[in-house]
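quick one, 205 residues, struct below
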Amino acid sequence: MSAIADSAALAAAAAALVIGLAVGLEAAASPGRAADGPAGAGGGRLDLPAAAPAPALPTSTRLPTPRTLVYGLRIGPASGTGTLQWTHGSGRYQARLEGRVAGLSILQWTSLGSTTGAGLAPDRFTDRRIGGREQTVRFVRPEGVLQSTGGGDRPFPPDAQDRLSWMVQIAAIAQGLGRPLVDGERITMWVTDARGHAQTCLLYT
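---
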């Protein structure tokens, strides 16, 4: 695709994420690939293939306007709905993603945190799935460590995102560029789940 529009990015990522998690595919929402390791600072990194000159990194982001997105969801013979609620104001944000199939809530994700010039700075991410207990990861920013339900602390980079906030961060980075993304560009982002397991996600246009 030549650009990532805010609503299109949020809707597509949310739909893929709910479907993927419902069938046990942890990375299904990423249109690129993932590898272990931190991505570095600065709200996300934008790269080009080695053969082309790299553009200037975005110096600011522009957040999508608050909205609620509802879409159809189908897993095998079962159908349902996915809902992504996104709000922000006064330097804070909340994002909530829920997938419902056959009248059951199969997935509830919530991300809370601050908004800055670099985009989203998560404070807490919770993950509740059907048949499982709630998992929570906290971003303790003064110490720069993650504290998760699974126990143990681990460091994180300043631009770290959770498995829900990264969807909005992608849109914010793309809008902050002030131009369409070029085919072959990619956004690199350090993302953690609610157990404190992190990946560097590469999202290609």
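The mean pLDDT is 73.
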